[in-house]
Amino acid sequence: MSDALSFVDALVNGHATVDEYDDYVEQWHDAPDDGSAVPLHEFLGLTWAEYQVVARDEGAFRFVAAARRQGIELLQLMEHKGQYGLAARSQDLDSAKQVIDLLTAAGIYPPSK
């Protein structure tokens, strides 16, 4: 685990795996309460929308990482998943559907116009 990178940055750059998520959360909980703490989602390097999804399903981190690698938002990746090669396998399509369901449950999808 790298102290210099957020979890998402470390994940995207190959310096962390999804299995290390709990380690980062524990590190946040163990930080001294000196008034300088940031919210957990910021510490992890997530937007609030991303956090709402991964808090419900840690498997969604792979979609967050894929969106970051493409330089787009998670919602954009989910709306155009075929364009980004996420539907190559039925398992990927099922996982993407679950992320869309999580975005819907969080009130993030469909996006308000």
What order do the helices and strands come in, and which of them pair?
Blueprint: H1 7-12, H2 21-30, H3 40-44, H4 48-54, H5 61-70, H6 74-79, H7 90-105
Summary keywords:
globular; single chain; mainly alpha; 53% helix; 113 residues
Description:
The protein has 113 residues and is mainly alpha-helical. Helices cover 53% and strands 0% of the residues. It contains seven helices and no strands. The longest helix has 16 residues. The termini are far apart.
Radius of gyration: 15 Å
Task: Write down how many β-strands occur, each being a DSSP E stretch of 2 or more residues.
Answer: 0
Global shape: globular
Task: Return the structural class.
Answer: mainly alpha
What is the string of SSEs from the N terminus onward? HHHHHHH
What is the structure about, briefly put?
It is built from seven helices and no strands. With 113 residues, it is mostly helical. The model has no long low-confidence stretch (mean pLDDT 81).
